[in-house]
Amino acid sequence: MRYLKPAPNKLHFLIVILLMIGVFFRFFNIDSKVYWHDETFTSLRISGYTANEARQQIFNGQIISKESFAKFQSPNMEKGLSDTIKSLETEDPQHPPLYYIIARFWVQIFGNSVTVIRSLSALISLLIFPSIYWLCRELFKASVWVSEVAIALMAISPIHLVYAQEAREYILWIVTILLCSASLLRALRLESKNKAQRILTWGIYAVTLALSLYTFLLTGFVAIAHGIYVIATARFRLNRIVKAYLLASLTGFFAFIPWILIVIDNFLQFDSSTTWTKMQVPLEILIKSWFLQLSRIFLDLNFGFENWFSYVITPVFVIFIGYSIYFLCRTTNYKVWLFVVTLIMIPALPLVLPDVIFGGIRSLSERYLLPSYLGIQLTVAYLLATQLHSESIVHRRIWQTIMGLVIICGLVSYGVSSQAQTWWSKVISYGNPQVATIINQVDRPLLISDDSGINYGNVFSLSYLLQSKVQFQLVKDQTIPNIPDELTDIFLLNPSDIWRKQIEANYKYKSNIVYGDNHYLLWKVENLHSLHQN
């Protein structure tokens, strides 16, 4: 691997500026985007209530106001920390409890506003910078400059901003992956030291692995990548290093056994909560989406493939990433490139291959691929750091221009994102700001919905956006609601065709679509008698 000299002062200054900008945007307008479906479930878990309890109390056909939702979105005297953990055990075992325990204490101390709960993720995201610095120093050893370029890339990466402003566990997962990976490399580096030192370093790896597992289940794939790397670098011999690794990793997994047993015990619930990943889409859509996801590491203007710009810019970033991986493999020791390549490939393959072979959309969830994105950012950081220090002035100028373009892409993405009300990451709640605007415009609105599918979470999401004048009537099992006569501006949120037609027939209503996207429809209903009179 090439020896890289320390960065010039001007480049140090640029990296410090980018770091400051990255920190600023993580907290800027943090509450501007819709508090979406999944985030409302975070608040539900923090409250200690289960979704079934919420359904029993508010999906009962009674007319309620938006204030009725608050009980299930904040800590309360009726439920404690044990109830938070129990609600995850019984309804959402795919999400281990570490983040939710931290979030509950955070909200109890500072309040339960959207700004407060998202600021926890923003604060956690700041730990990425020392973590990536440590990992790069362990991986690239002689190069301080690679570490600093990596910090700059993380500071302006749009994908990091998305999860730094979301009340979910994924930004904590990134931090634990970085710490776990760095502690593994440190343990391997210090293996020749005295016994006490070895025990300490491998103990740190075991602890960070356990913390990562208790943050998100897919850490298991990262652990497999680590195992392949250790065994491969030991040339498939069961030497002292491999034995120490196996003992440390088994210790980490042993600490996670209580939650593994919970997942097994609630497997049907676990399987039910992940059924959406089995939705079938054409292979062409999968490939386009993969390329778009890769480009979002560096540029994210909330465009999909329906925008022509995506077809132009996405191949450029795919080629850039491909070359960075090639350059890393060609110019570094196998112990360096193998670590990065396994971090990219191993967590991604269990998601990509089933989608290709059996169908599904597991690999279309960017949050599941975050370990792979970290590996990609490591390769790009190494490429840029190396080329910016080239002996050829012309060569150096070219890569300074490329580095400048990467920086511009990140800054433009941050500027656009900071002003938006919604983003691609809000998925099934993407249109909620527009839906709320439509409902808020009328005088006496009533929103009717049931608890099927995505409706439960989206009703909670809308409660953050709708004005106090809006009334809700929520039912279970698509029963016919008893609609009051005085509420004339009636909306149906994502009803099934059968249920909507039953309501129309029962009340002699006529309904029209006033909003629709790929996930749900909003219907406005009117009394046929009123229409005839007009």
TrEMBL record:
Domain Glycosyltransferase RgtA/B/C/D-like: 94-261
Highest classification ranks of the organism: Bacteria, Bacillati, Cyanobacteriota, Cyanophyceae, Nostocales
UniProt GO BP: lipopolysaccharide biosynthetic process
Cellular compartments annotated: Cell membrane
UniProt cross-references to PANTHER family, sorted A to Z: MANNOSYLTRANSFERASE YKCB-RELATED (PTHR33908), MEMBRANE PROTEIN (PTHR33908:SF11)
Topology of this chain in the membrane: Multi-pass membrane protein
Segments crossing the lipid bilayer: 12-28, 116-136, 143-164, 170-188, 200-232, 244-264, 309-329, 336-353, 368-386, 398-416
Gene Ontology molecular functions: pentosyltransferase activity
Organism: Nostoc edaphicum CCNP1411
Protein name (database record): Glycosyltransferase family 39 protein
Gene Ontology annotations for the cellular component aspect, listed alphabetically: plasma membrane
InterPro entries (UniProt xref): LipidA_mod_glycosyltrf_83, RgtA/B/C-like
